[in-house]
Amino acid sequence: MRRFLYVAGLPVLLLLGWFVLSSGSENFYAPPLRDILRAFVDTWTPERLRADVLPSLVRLFAGYVLAALLGVALGVAIGLNRRLRATVEPVLEFFRAIPPPVLVPVIMLFAGIGDGMKVIVIVFGCVWPILLNTVEGVRAVDGVQLDTAKAYGVRGAARIRTVILPSASPQIAAGLRQALSIAIILMVISEMFAASNGLGFTIVQFQRSFAIPEMWSGIILLGLLGFALSLLFRLAEGRALRWYHGLRDAQRRS
Amino acid sequence: MLEVQGLRKVYSSGGREVEALRDLTFTVENGDLVCLVGPSGCGKTTLLRCIAGLLQQTGGTVTLDGHQVSGPPPGLAMVFQEYGRSLFPWMSVRDNVSLPLKQKRVPRQRRDELVDKALAAVGLAGTESAYPWQLSGGMQQRVAIARAVAYEPSTLLMDEPFAAVDAQTRADLEDLVRSLWQRLNVTVLFITHDIDEAVYLGRRVIMLSSSPTVVQDEITVDLPAERDQLHTRADPRFTELRTHVYEQIQKAKRLSR
Amino acid sequence: MLEVQGLRKVYSSGGREVEALRDLTFTVENGDLVCLVGPSGCGKTTLLRCIAGLLQQTGGTVTLDGHQVSGPPPGLAMVFQEYGRSLFPWMSVRDNVSLPLKQKRVPRQRRDELVDKALAAVGLAGTESAYPWQLSGGMQQRVAIARAVAYEPSTLLMDEPFAAVDAQTRADLEDLVRSLWQRLNVTVLFITHDIDEAVYLGRRVIMLSSSPTVVQDEITVDLPAERDQLHTRADPRFTELRTHVYEQIQKAKRLSR
Amino acid sequence: MSSRSRGTALLGLAGLGGLLLVIELLPRLGLVDDAYLPPTSEIAAALADELGTAAFWQAVGDTLTGWAIGLLIAVAAGVVVGIVVGAVPVLRAATASTIEFLRPIPSVALIPLAVLLYGTDLGSVLLLVVYASFWQVLVQVLYGVADVDPIADETARSFRFSGWARVRHVLWPTALPYVFTGIRLAASVALVLAVTAELVIGAPGLGKLIAVAQTSGAVPDMYALIAVTGLLGVAINLAARVFERRSLSWHQSVRGEVPA
Amino acid sequence: SGDGGGGTDSNGVDQVKVGVIPIVDVAPIYLGQQKGFFSNRKINLTMESGQGGAAIVPGVVSGQFQFGFSNFTSLLIAQTKDVPIKAVSAGVSSVGEQGKDFGGVVVNANSPIKTAADLAGKKISVNTLKNIGDTTVRESVRKAGGDPSKINFVEMPFPNAPAALAGGQVDASWLVEPQLSEAKAAGARLVASNFVDAAPNLSVAAYFTSTKLQGEDADLVKRFTEAINESLAYADAHPDEVRAVLGTYTKIDEKTRAAMILPKWPAEINEASVQTLADLGAKDGIFDGKTPDLAKLLP
Ligand SMILES: Nc1ncnc2c1ncn2[C@@H]1O[C@H](COP(=O)(O)OP(=O)(O)OP(=O)(O)O)[C@@H](O)[C@H]1O
Ligand SMILES: Nc1ncnc2c1ncn2[C@@H]1O[C@H](COP(=O)(O)OP(=O)(O)OP(=O)(O)O)[C@@H](O)[C@H]1O
Ligand SMILES: [Mg+2]
Ligand SMILES: [Mg+2]
Predict the structure, then answer these.
(1) D53: alpha, beta or left, given left = phi > 0 and alpha = psi -120 to 50?
(2) Is the sign of the CA dihedral D36, D39, D40, D43 positive or negative?
(3) Cα angle value B188/B191/B195 (rounded, 5°)
(4) E154 alpha carbon to ligand 4 midpoint, in Å?
(5) Ligand 1: which residue has its CA nearest to atom 8?
(6) Which of the residues B163, B169, D158, E158 has an alpha carbon 20 to 30 A from that of E200?
């Protein structure tokens, strides 16, 4: 009950505030929440969800998983090797600073215009927080822990699996969490190019065709989607990092 | 055989230069049990890390069985002074102890056996599934010891391994180390602050001077190989030896002032 | 006056339930120096944390000067068993020691004086600008001690504060604690595994049973108030007392088996 | 030390050089059509032309202004909100769902709103930049605050540090490495958003130049401008790294004694 | 006048912001500015360039911009959604000659697609879906006897389309200048002039303002309309000056500027052709079943 209050309290307040403040809105681009909610019900029918949201989710999932694998793998390599880090860091920073909308055409040159391109765009955008956090997490592994592993001949893959990754995992989790919402954002951006379905595409279409309440309802759907995914993420994180949360909570009043 | 030749180590980080070890030379025969004593901050941990190949020395050499040490040699186990930080908080006690064995590709069954035995030997049977941070300081230290013991190393380096346990447990653990040493013919290097412990445990005791560190003195403990807590400590020769060591350390500290 | 009444603490984390303290009752007069001894893992650290108001007990009460303890009371200083982790790695030794004083709004000059004196007293003059991780284990522990000493607390809680220092330094630090106690009339609660130390230092020694923990026994150390390392330890009464304590602890351990 | 950092710089240059070489070779070897991805040399020539124009420098200035102001606001807000929310469990619990809801809303979806409020003024760019980069900092700070070592925190509590002192002396240094990662993430997200906003809304800056080059089919110019964006990113990261090394000299990731 | 960026200074000169897309179509307004057609009428013009309607229409509605430039299909869609805007003048028109228009559908030289009818069932790129591009291309196919319902349109910005076409990612591309010339130079072949197929002398785009400004400052709107009409006429008569002014706000290189086909800029909106666009849009279902009310939109 209390948890529910925490989860729902603030959003309900904000929605109420929005509802009341917007109820008399004359502004074409900021319609009353009432209209938006009505549009929400009308727009996001099960067929619509299947036709537009499902493909988006599939691409999102594929891109996110790929980015996670790539980010962690690269991050470990870069974090462990100072020379490698020095060599590739500027190149990575270079690409990181390029806005995806201008990069999409280049990606299109190599990856075509199908789902592959969209997945690559998602990977390209959301790999950075994972990569950066992994690098920093790996670099911050406790020296005594590393020495212990070394002394006992724990090396190679086992060292990475049993020492480095777990130790860096809280920070990797931070990166994964950041990446999740960026992946959603990139899903939308990727669907602005060469798409003919998808949630992002639909929202942009609504915007272009001046279906403003529908557009807002799409944005709300994005938010809900992000919220649902982050709940799932929190669940997974809670399981994977049980030791960490336990350790952190251990001495706090129990 | 372990040979330390003119070992020197200077730490330089952030403008601060500390000569932790100036010039250390000594040898340890295979299967020997050597205790190292010396004032706090004299470089004992530094020495152990160099021997384990975890730290690059500034000068001199460390050779083990004729090979120059550049990384941790196989069959080496180490109990770190920072026992708390040397346990992996994301693994249960059992996993912490068995991880090195897994690395050594000890078959599963034998592994479980070794782990159970080692944990029982340090008085921790029943805590296998706990995480290290659910244990008291002394218990954590004993997990670290159990890990080293279960590994059945050929060289065992221990850095103040009994600092956090009570007197009774300490006595038990001393006997555990001696029995392990006798049973497996391990080469043991043991750092302690407790002079009685050094004399009780060691076949030799090496005394280090305070910083900048050299070997101050060295004795062979000519007590019988079969020792026990009651009789050995009552032996007049024991008292003689411990007084000698005590005086040397006093001298080392005085010199440095 | 510190009163511990029926204190009980059960840890429950991740399905594991451990009754660390079962039922502890004792009192400590203001200005008393009490040593706590007990087997490893019996709950000494847990007890100290409850007294410091850092841990919520499961049952019973802790009162200090009539007020129930719910958070760290003013004028309290604590030396943690995990000395390494209780120092802030991002601060120099000097800053680590002086930060609590700053919090107490001690004027700058007085602060510097206290810090210098405390560092000198633990034998660390000259390391002010080093970071904790540039120091040896024993040195780190002494920084933590210096921090507590410089604070001039009215209640001082120490959890195995000398575990990582050599015998000679340990003797010096013991005398430091006694002189601080006499000079400032501090209430000291001191956890140690070294029975000689407990008897040498304390005005009283409280012995805890092993887990689940109750007070096993308690003695008043009727040695003269003026103690020194040579004569006090040679005193036959000293030997008597330490033997008593030793036996009690032996008994505590045996009972638990 | 200095020779080591020189080595680092050389390796970094080698990495960038490798990238340039690849881009030179791809079209030269006919792997891609040079009408769509021109070789490095042509991009460099276009870049040289651009460097000579005042409009270019004006645009760089505009972009950097939007970036810097936006980043500053985002970092300040992210750090303050992150610490307050992270340190007060009740707040954390109460805001978690709202934060998760707002975070994945793409800045691009806010473009109409931005234009509505600010037209093509700096305000539009700032709105998008701040919105996007704020979350980057916030999430990092939240994780950083959660990473405080319980013993360190207990030490502070036992000495009765005030709330502020605990934040200042324990929470903040622990969270600092996370904050730096957050700032580095935010810095490039801010740059990306500043350029994107200019690109789509048409606020003055590099993005607008890119848009013009793009619609005009001036491919080498477009890549030259994109390269400038990337190089800005590299420069920003370099500055952040130097700053980080200074502030985190005590941290494991920086101090790491060279092992054997 | 307007509340956002606009305003009138002490000399009675109005500050006017116009949201445009920096392409060939809006050359007249730049030219007119150069020639002083606006300052003559006490209008100080600032061009704000955005990428497409996403930024321009809200800007005009909220008064951040006083005027904007948009294609008619978008304006018709806006009208069916009751967006408070109104066209004030013509913007740009098709050349009206088969094969010589400034926009068209191209395929690769070796493509099996020979006529518009062959486009049925193929993948065609347009810059925005459900807009003027796909409705008019469908009409081309329809007129050539193909089945327009089978076309698979994908959305792709004009600048990226030639690469996608050359790379075989799409079968055909609907392009406008300068990409059209560029693609043709690279060997692409024109198979349909969709604007011409849709209607004779099709009015493609218009300048528009918000109904609010129309009501509050009719004088400004009138002056702007006069100035833009003069500009359109001037541009239509002076193609060389148009090609020159293109160099000031785009990066189209000189060769392309010289070679590319310029659109027509008649001062009058061809209302019949706008009606055709509305009919085509209705046929393709882009108005959600509503019928645009031309009277409300056109000046
Ligand atoms: N990482 C480091 N950077 C700089 N100086 C260091 C570092 N580690 C140790 N030192 C210095 O080297 C000297 C020896 O340290 P070491 O840890 O070897 O001492 P020790 O003999 O193990 O002491 P203790 O008994 O207190 O553990 C000390 O003066 C210490 O300050
Ligand atoms: N965070 C925790 N979660 C669960 N159990 C804990 C936790 N901390 C301590 N314990 C358990 O409580 C008991 C007492 O621990 P405590 O640290 O108080 O012992 P101690 O007397 O200080 O031992 P030592 O002398 O070894 O430091 C132990 O059995 C330990 O396993
Ligand atoms: Mg040491
Ligand atoms: Mg303890």
Answers:
(1) beta
(2) negative
(3) 115
(4) 69
(5) C134
(6) E158
Is position D72 within any domain?
yes
Q: What is the interface pTM, i.e. ipTM, of the complex?
A: 0.81
- pLDDT by residue for chain B (257 residues), tens only, comes to 899 999 999 988 767 788 889 989 999 999 999 999 988 888 999 999 899 888 888 999 999 988 898 888 888 898 988 888 888 888 899 999 988 888 888 999 999 999 999 999 998 988 999 988 889 989 999 999 999 999 999 999 999 999 888 888 888 899 989 998 988 889 999 999 888 899 999 999 999 988 788 888 899 988 888 888 888 888 899 899 988 888 888 777 676 65
Contact E260, D226 (CB under 8 A): no
With respect to residue D29, please indicate whether it lies within any of the assigned structural domains: no
Tokens 């036959």 correspond to C236
Which of D104, D136, D230 is opposite residue A223, by nearest beta carbon?
D104
Burial of E190 (0-12, 13-18, 19+ CB in 10 A): middle
Residue written as token pair 């001495």: A251
Residue D160's domain comprises 59-253
For residue D146, tell me if it sits in a domain.
Answer: yes
What ligand 1 atom has the least distance to the C-alpha of C135?
A: 31
Burial of D90 (0-12, 13-18, 19+ CB in 10 A): exposed
Cα–Cα dist A56/E98, whole Å: 40
The DSSP output letter for E265 is -
Whether B61 contacts B6, CB under 8 Å: yes
Is residue D33 assigned to a domain?
A: no
Residues present in chain B in total: 257
Does residue E243 contact residue E178 with C-beta atoms inside 8 Å? no
Q: How many domains, chain D?
A: 1
Establish how many alpha carbons lie within 13 A of residue C41's alpha carbon, considering only the half-sphere containing its beta carbon. 21
B236 CB-near residues (< 8 Å, 6+ apart): none
Tell me the pairing of strands B76-79 and B155-159.
Answer: parallel
Rounded to whole angstroms, the Cα distance separating D95 from D256 reads 37
Q: Give, as one character, the DSSP assignment of residue E262.
A: P
Contacts of A163 in chain B (CB under 8 A): 88
Phi, psi of C168 (to 5 degrees): -65, -50
CATH 1.10.3720.10 is right for the domain spanning A52-241? yes
DSSP C166-231: -HHHHHHHHHHHHHHHHHH--EEEEE-S-HHHHHHH-SEEEEEPSSSEEEEEEEE--S-SS--HHH
**Continuous segment of H or E residues that includes residue C23:** strand C16-28
Closest CA to E16 of E246, E234, E220: E220
Residue E44: other Cβ atoms inside 10 A: 17
Domain coordinates in residue numbering, chain A: 52-241
Tokens of D176: 């600092």
Chain B CB contacts of A148 under 8 Å are 78, 80, 86-88
Q: Which domains does chain C have, with CATH numbers?
A: 1-75+157-162+187-257 (3.40.50.300), 79-152 (no CATH)
| Alpha carbon distance C141, C147 (integer Å) | 10
Chain length of chain E: 299
CA nearest A165 in B: which residue? B90
Contacts of E247 in chain D (CB under 8 A): none
Tell me which DSSP letter residue B217 carries: E
Query: Where residue D245 sits, what CATH number does that domain have?
Result: 1.10.3720.10
Residues listed for chain C: 257
Given a contact cutoff of 8 angstroms between Cβ atoms, the answer to whether C220 and C204 are in contact is: yes
Give the closest residue (by CA) to ligand 2 atom 2: B134
Question: Which pTM was predicted?
Answer: 0.84
Q: Which chains touch A (3 or more CB pairs under 8 A)?
A: B, C, D, E
